[in-house]
Amino acid sequence: MDALGLLRPGASVSGLPAAHTPGAATGFALGDHAGRAQAAPAAEPGVVASTASGPLQRRFQPYQNNGGTVLAVAGKGFCVVASDTRLGLGYSIPSRKVSRILKMTDKVVLASSGMQADMLTLHKTLRMRLVQYQQTHQKHMSLTAASQMLSNMLYTRRFFPYYTFNVLGGIDENGEGWAYGYDAIGSHEKVSAVCSGTGQTLIQPVLDNQIEFKQQWGAPKVDLSLEATVELIRDAFTSAGERDIYTGDFVEICKITKDGVDVEEFQLKLD
């Protein structure tokens, strides 16, 4: 130590933590697998600490969440599947017009949120499976068969799953509308209304209240018409777009009836 009491480069002082010495800078900058610094043992007086701080583990993160909100609402003789079109990446918006909808048949529609690359891979594989099923059985896949096939596909990738969160909606063999909600590894549930994605916490309580009447104790349950359901979905996405930066721009609304799938687009705020 010089006359001014300053520590010269390469010098060491007894009692000074080793993490403050130049030799420990490399270990501090790299850190361990949890991102925390690995402090080297305290240096002996007059000895510069070694740069070797033990084994290091490099982190590999294969996933990213590109945002998006998807939902499905079923009613008497219809089902509505909707998704916004904003592709987010951190605080950036690489694209405002990305479709998350896959029309599997004239009575079954899938919407997926999560990682864009995994979503495209999943939808591509589903298209192939649908063609194989049609050529083998000479008919289109039913809603029940499509829901089970999607569950099986997600479950087979459970050790390195598709980073997607899916909702499936459509009309069954009896003409009734149903919706299915999935997690990333294929666990699914047959419900009347389900939402997934970054806006789930904002929209799902609205669906529970207005579709399932879960919080309206004693109130008679009223089945909404197709037009009323679409209006509710527009309001839900408009509200979610005000709070969730990953939901916005446009909403694709697929109205599934016995006559087929009708798609309309609804514009949200662009900021």
From TrEMBL:
Q: Which GO terms describe its biological process?
A: proteolysis involved in protein catabolic process
Q: Which UniProt keywords apply?
A: Cytoplasm, Nucleus, Proteasome
Q: Does the keyword Lyase apply?
A: no
Q: Name one Pfam family in it.
A: Proteasome
Q: What InterPro entries does the record point to?
A: Ntn_hydrolases_N, Proteasome_bsu_CS, Proteasome_sua/b, Proteasome_suB-type
Where does the record place it?
Cytoplasm; Nucleus
The reply on keyword Cytoplasm is yes
Q: What does this protein do?
A: Component of the proteasome, a multicatalytic proteinase complex which is characterized by its ability to cleave peptides with Arg, Phe, Tyr, Leu, and Glu adjacent to the leaving group at neutral or slightly basic pH. The proteasome has an ATP-dependent proteolytic activity.
- Note the subunit structure: Component of the proteasome complex.
Name the UniProt record assigns to this protein = Proteasome subunit beta
- Could you tell me which species this protein originates from? Porphyra umbilicalis (Purple laver)
